[in-house]
Design a protein that fits this description.
The chain has 343 residues and is an alpha/beta fold. The chain has a domain at 2-188 and 232-265 and 302-317: NAD(P)-binding Rossmann-like Domain (Rossmann fold), CATH 3.40.50.720. 40% of the residues lie in helices and 18% in strands. It has 11 helices and 14 strands. It has helices at 11-22, 39-48, 62-71, 86-91, 93-114, 147-165, 199-207, 235-251, 271-282, 306-312, 320-333, and strands at 2-6, 26-31, 53-56, 74-79, 118-124, 170-176, 178-180, 214-217, 229-230, 232-234, 258-263, 269-270, 288-291, 300-301. A 7-stranded parallel sheet has the order 3-2-1-4-5-6-11, with helices on both faces. Strands 12-9-14 form a 3-stranded mixed sheet. Strands 7-10 form a two-stranded parallel ribbon. β1 (2-6), α1 and β2 form a beta-alpha-beta unit. α7 (199-207) runs parallel beside α9. The two termini are 35 Å apart. The chain binds nicotinamide-adenine-dinucleotide and uridine-5'-diphosphate-4-deoxy-4-fluoro-alpha-D-galactose (UFG). The site of uridine-5'-diphosphate-4-deoxy-4-fluoro-alpha-D-galactose has 21 residues, from α7 and β8.
Length: 343
């Protein structure tokens, strides 16, 4: 079976390509390289020993997508392509609505015209807004506090409407908690451009000397040490969840033709616990100072994982030490990201 992977050159998409290739699927990547480097595709080939088909293309070009879907006889789609920076989404909201919402609409239209009716979609725990209870179950009310989150909610609604219109469509909406880590080979990993917004990439840049110190956003939350708590999940576990979701959808064994499921570990770690874990893994001091809370941040966010276990027969296996160790391995082997050969 050939699976189209949009955004396959990006952080999570590249790991997903490895997982699907190693599971025996043929894949075709569609990526416009707006937030990635084509070198990641060569690394996927090096890890798997397989050639991948890649189309440098934009998901907003429907005719081209239809050509690609038909030319490669694609039977399913895993859809990662989109913009993902929360802060940026408040500055350039139209770019977010266009890339994420219009892009997904265009992709769905191309799929409909090509008879491809199965998609896994990258959603986010951000759709739960301010938690009303913890751990977060999939039936927790949804809300969004920024344009990025609203694009995810709108796409989820769009998928539910399409699924309701025709039972042949099959959608797996996967709500990620906080993906971190890298492939254990150190060949692919997260490669943010500019100043990282997220905790783990920022910590790595303090560890390798690119940044002076980490600003810890808030130490007065009602958490065990006052800093924000999140459910960090190893990217390898995350993409294995995609593989399982794909298999469940393809087998037709899902209870409904559109499900939303959390992909997290169920464990919450604070910012200070992350700092300590990274110090252990890297043997480096992570200098930090406390700064005011960041707008829009919640105190705590972690998943209830029961539905994923029941529906997908999947559970995250890698612990925090593995997440930090694999991240550090990737950074040490690729101090300039994909810009220079891996050492
Ligand atoms: P990423 O930026 O590394 O990957 C996205 C890829 O999509 C990039 O390679 C980019 O070049 C490509 N892309 C963007 N717009 C495109 C377009 N119009 N046409 C074709 N390609 C396009 O991001 P990621 O961290 O791998 O995230 C993948 C998906 O998971 C995104 O949809 C993101 O919103 C979602 N997600 C990520 C996180 C996270 O913390 N990383 C959390 C929750 C959800
Ligand atoms: N943090 C710091 N300093 C930093 C960066 C982050 O203290 O420099 C703290 C944050 O305040 C938060 C925790 O580290 O308490 C995690 O922050 P991230 O930015 O890494 O992750 P978020 O949980 O804020 O957001 C991430 C993704 C969003 C997604 C959300 C839910 O970036 O896109 O998870 O899935 F919506």
């Amino acid at each position: 079976m050939t699976v189209l992977i949009t955004g396959g050159a990006g952080y999570i998409g590249s790991h997903c390509c490895v997982a699907f290739l190693q599971a025996g699927y043929d894949i075709v990547v569609v990526d416009n390289l707006s937030n990635s480097n084509r070198m990641s595709l060569e690394r996927i080939e090096a890890i798997t020993g397989q050639k991948i088909k890649c189309e440098i293309a934009d998901i907003r070009n429907q005719d081209n997508l239809e050509r690609i879907l038909k030319a490669h006889n694609c039977e399913a789609v895993v859809h990662f392509a989109g913009l993902k920076a929360v802060g940026e989404s408040t500055q350039i909201p139209l770019a977010y609505y266009e890339n994420n919402v219009v892009g997904t609409h265009t992709l769905l239209s191309a799929m409909a015209n090509s008879g491809v009716k199965q998609m896994i979609f990258s959603s986010s725990a951000t759709v739960y807004g301010e938690p009303q209870f913890l751990p977060l179950t999939e039936d927790h009310p949804t809300s969004a506090v920024n344009p990025y989150g609203r694009t995810k909610l709108m796409i989820e609604e769009m998928l539910r409407d399409v699924a309701a219109s025709d039972p042949q469509w099959r959608f797996g909406i996967l709500r990620y908690f906080n993906p971190v880590g890298a492939h254990h080979s150190g060949q692919i990993g997260e490669n943010p451009l500019g100043i990282p917004n997220n905790l783990m990439p920022f910590i790595t840049q303090v560890a390798d000397g690119r940044r002076e110190q980490l600003a810890v956003f808030g130490n007065d939350y009602e958490t065990r040490d006052g800093t924000g708590v999140r459910d960090y999940i190893h990217v390898t576990d995350l993409v294995e969840g995609h593989l399982r979701a794909h298999e469940v959808l393809a087998s037709g064994s899902a209870r409904s033709n559109c499900f939303a499921v959390n992909l997290g570990t169920g464990n919450g770690y604070s910012v200070l616990e992350m700092v300590k874990a990274f110090e252990r893994a890297s043997n480096k001091e992570i200098r930090f100072s406390f700064a005011p809370r960041r707008d829009g941040d919640v105190a705590e966010c972690y998943a209830n994982t029961e539905l994923a276990e029941e529906l997908l027969d999947w559970k995250a296996e890698r612990d925090l030490d593995a997440m930090c160790r694999d991240t550090w391995n990737w950074v040490c082997k690729n101090p300039r990201g994909y810009e220079a050969p891996s050492t």
